[in-house]
Each structure stands twice: as structure tokens, then as C-alpha cells.
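tl;dr need the bound structure. longer version: we got a ligand (phosphoenolpyruvate) that a collaborator sent over and nobodys looked at where it sits. i said id run it. heres the input, straight from their email, havent touched it
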Amino acid sequence: MRLKLVAGNWKMHGSLAGNQALLTALVSQLEELNGMRCAVCVPFPYLAQAQASLTGTKLAWGAQNLSQYDKGAFTGEVSASMLLEFGCSYVIVGHSERRALFGETDAVVAVKFAAALAAGITPILCVGETLEERDAGRAESVIARQLDAVIAGSGMVGLAKSVIAYEPVWAIGTGKTASPEQAQAVHAFIRRKLATLDADIAAALIIQYGGSVKAANAAELFSQPDIDGGLIGGASLQVDEFMAICQAAQG
Ligand code: PEP
């Protein structure tokens, strides 16, 4: 059985004081929950705070990006081994905002994915189509291309150590959620596609849904057979919303 994973993506939000209040509340409320896993992916400067506040708790933490390089003259970059020093269990790779706003190509995403794996950090690989691509009937081919780039670099054995997040770009931060049926159809496509390469790995892989998940729609989304939790943006900054989403993921 796949244990659902709910991961918060704080994006570029936070402050030391605000984070502390959020983390303290999440840690105490998560004590009551069972049969699911939960993580928060915070901006780089707050990793030390996450490590200090969350070590030994049920709440894991991670980053939202990493460098494709190990070390060297790469001003402004943060390597996988640096993330490891701050106890990161997860790192988001290939978020659509990084692909669209920072020019990350499939090839760069594949190298970042491999760098995370090499450091022993679980990559949360984001895939998903834009509205234009969906309307043109290209959603599946776009997602297949995004997955194939990573599989070419790390193989199915590498993919087995990751989490996939299906995030339709048109649903991220827009308030427009994919319907449970729309999301399930794509999740099933991803699992079917991966099963042609390795059925056991495909069956065990966590595939999260992301895109305007909130307390009001989480339970229905998570009840779909191939949806194994969520990657949560805006709602992960509000204790009550995020905890209700976590509750919906309990097994
Ligand atoms: C995200 O940033 O990955 C995301 C899904 O955002 P939101 O939940 O705000 O749509």
C-alpha cells in the first residue's frame, strides 16, 4: 500500500517569526495524525530553522530547488550536499515556475534530479501541461517527454527513489483545480506509462497531485486510486487548511 505524502511548497514566502508559529502549530497537530507522511519545502534561508524546529518530529522538510552542479564558481547556487547538511529529506525539482520563469529545460531538470539522488535526497519531480498544451490534446505527450528526460538520466531505478507531482500548470495558484476525474486520468496515464518499463516500480511510486488543493477538495482528490497525496502551495501557509489536507490523506 502506498502511504500518502502531503508536501507544502512555501514558494518565496515566510519570515523567521511567522515560520516559527506555523511550524510549531503543524508539529503539535501532526502528532494526532497517522497513516500519512508530511513535509514542508521552505526557502533556502529557512532550512536551518526547519532543521532546528523539526528534527525528531513527524514533519519532514526540504528545499524547493537545487543546483545541477556539485560545487564551484556558480554564484547564487545551492548544491545537493549543502541541502543534506541541513537535513533535507526532499527537494522539489522541475516546478513549473522554475521551468517557465527561470528557463529550466527538461535536460537541466534531469541533471538536478540526478544530483538530488546522488546526495540521498528524495526529489519531488514536478510534471504537467499548460492550458494551451491541454487544449491542443498534448497533455500526455508533454508529461511523457518530461518523464522520459529524467528516466534517460537516472533510469527507473532512480525514479523509484523519487516522488512524482502531477501539477497541471493551469491549476497552480489559479484557484482552478483539476477535477478528481481529470487528475485521476493523468495519474493513471503516468502509472501506465511507467509500468511499461517496470510494473513493480510503477505500482509503488508516490504520485502526488498539485494545483489549488485546499481543505474543501483534498478528500475527493485523494480518494482517487492513483492520487497519493498532494503538493500544496498557497494552502500550506495556513495551519488549518494544511492540517485539514493532511487529515484527508490519512490512511
Ligand atoms: C505549487 O506551488 O506546487 C502549487 C500546487 O501551488 P497552489 O497549491 O497554490 O496551486
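gonna send this back to them w/ a short note. The pocket of phosphoenolpyruvate is lined by residues 9, 11, 167, 172-173, 210-213, 231-235 (CB under 6 Å).
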